[in-house]
Please model this.
Amino acid sequence: MALPNAYAQYGTGKIMTASPAELTLLLYEGAIKFCNLAITAVEQQAIPKAHTNIMKAERIVDYLRGTLDMKYPVAQDFDRIYDYLSLRLRQANVKKDQEVLEEVCGHFRGLRDTWKQVIHSK
Model:
């Protein structure tokens, strides 16, 4: 029982000490995780589990959109990306479409990998 608690404390500490750029990276990784869990749930026909994980990925997208500072032109580009991902996640959730989930997960991986490069180039 002590190990899960220690892991939770480590995760909380990681979040509390992360920079804004690192938090964005963690959000991308979380979205990938939830998409993968949803894909597995769809494969197993575990519909409620698929729905729950798709919704978690959608909430991450909503949060990312909410953090955009629209005074910068690049924020508008990210807003369009997040809008598309949100649309595709809703479509995947309605039909429990594994192919759409894999597409979205691929986009999240691309965003994550690009974001890692941005962080490490500083």
Remarks:
- Residues 19-120 form a domain with the Four Helix Bundle (Hemerythrin (Met), subunit A) fold (CATH 1.20.120.340).
- DSSP finds five helices and no strands in the chain.
- Helices lie at 2-17, 20-43, 47-66, 73-95, 98-120.
- The mean pLDDT is 92.
